[in-house]
Amino acid sequence: MNASKAHIDFYLVGIGNHAVPKWDDAILALIQQSTVFSGGKRHYELVKPFLPANHSWIEISGKMEALIQKYKTIHLPIVIFVSGDPFFYGFGNTLQRLLPHAKLKACPYFNSIQLLCHKTKTNYNALKTVSVHGRDWSALDSALINRNELIGVLTDAKKTPATIAKRMLQYGFDNYSITIGEALDGNNEHIEKLDLLACTKKEHDRLNCVLLNQITPKDKPFGIPDHAFVPLPNRANMITKMPIRLSTVSALQLQNKGVFWDVGSCTGSVAIEAKQHFPHVKIIAFEKRTACETIIQQNTERFSTPGIEIVIDDFFNLNLKDYPTPDAVFIGGHGGRLKELIHTVHQLNPSARCVTNAVKESSTNTFVEEFTKLNYTISTTVIQVNAHNKISIHTAEKRSK
C-alpha cells in the first residue's frame, strides 16, 4: 500500500484470528510510520508487539460518543484495527455514520462469512448475509420468509447456533442444514455441518458464524386458505376471508412501509398474510381477547411467519408511545370506538395509511366522515365473497399539500 499524498484521517486495517497477524510489507510500513492506534482489547493483545515503542492506543469499548470525541482531539492519522472487513457489519460503517466527513482508507481482511464459505468450498454467489449479533431476529426472519437458499449469519453469545436452530424448527424451517464455523483461522478452528435438531443439542465456541443451506424448497402460497388457520373456538367464520385479506394487504401498500399495526388482529390472519409478502415490515398484532394470544402464535408457527409481535390488551388502555410508530394501520376491530381509534392513530402519525373492512353502514360513515375532516383522501373497494356480506375496504391516506 503506497502512502497517499492526500491526508487520511483513519486507516482501517482488518485482521483475522491468527495467533500472529498476517500483513504484507505495506501494512507493516504503515504501522511503523504511525503513532496513534485504536481497536478493541483483543486487537491490542494481537498487534501490540508490532507497534512502535512511542505509540498511543485508544480503546474501542462500546462508548461511541466518548470515543468519537477522543478521535476529534487527534490531528494525526489514526490506524484502527478491526476484525475482518471494516464495512461488513463493522466499525467502518460506524465511523461513516458518526463522522460522515472523515477521510477513510480500508485495508480489509476476509469477513468471517467469506472465510466459512472459502473453507467449506461453498459457492456464495447467491449468499444473503444477516447479523443477529447484538440485534433482534428481524433480518434472519426476513431471509427465511423470503426463502433465501443460502444465508450467512453473524451470531452472538445469546443468539447461538443452537438458539437459531431452535427458532427455525419452531417456525417450520426444517428444510435447512446448518454449518458452524468456530474460531476461524485460529488454533482451535472447527467446522461442522449438522441438521437443525442435532444443532439444538450442542454448544459451540462463542467466536462463531453459521451458514444455512436450503436442502429442499418450502412452499409459500399466495394467499393462505381460510380453513388452514387455527380459528377462534366455536367461531370458525370469524376470520378475514382470503380474497378480502389479500385486497386489504394490497390497500395497505406495505412495500415502502416500516411499521404496520394490525388492530383487532383476532386469529392474526391479516398480520400473517402481510408478513408473508412484506417480511421487512415490523408488524404488531393488537388483540384484547386473551385466548387469541395462543391462537395467533400457533398460526405464525403454522405458516412459518416469525417476527410478529403479539400484544394482548385493550388497545385503548395501552401507552402506544411504547411501540414503534406505525406508518400503516389496519383497523380490524374497534369495540364500537372507531372514531376514537381514528383520532388516536392520526395523533400518533398523521401520515399513516389506514385501512378498514366495513360491513355496517355506520362503520363506513364514521371512517369516511372522520378521516375526511382530518383532510385524508378516501378510496373504497367493495367485495363480496360467495354468500357472505359485502365488504367495503376503505383506505385513508393523507392528502399531499
Automatic annotation (TrEMBL):
What is this protein's record name? Bifunctional cobalt-precorrin-7 (C(5))-methyltransferase/cobalt-precorrin-6B (C(15))-methyltransferase
Q: Which InterPro entries match?
A: 4pyrrol_Methylase_sf, 4pyrrole_Mease_sub1, CbiE, Cbl_synth_CobL, Cbl_synth_MTase_CbiT, Cobalamin_biosynth_MTase, SAM-dependent_MTases_sf
Query: Per its record, what are the GO molecular function terms?
Result: protein methyltransferase activity
A biological process from GO = cobalamin biosynthetic process
Q: What is the scientific name of the source organism? A: Flavivirga eckloniae
Report if keyword Transferase is assigned: yes
Which top-level group of life is the source organism from? Bacteria
**S-adenosyl-L-methionine in keyword set:** yes
Pathway field of the UniProt record reads: Cofactor biosynthesis; adenosylcobalamin biosynthesis
Which keywords are on file for this protein? Cobalamin biosynthesis, Methyltransferase, S-adenosyl-L-methionine, Transferase
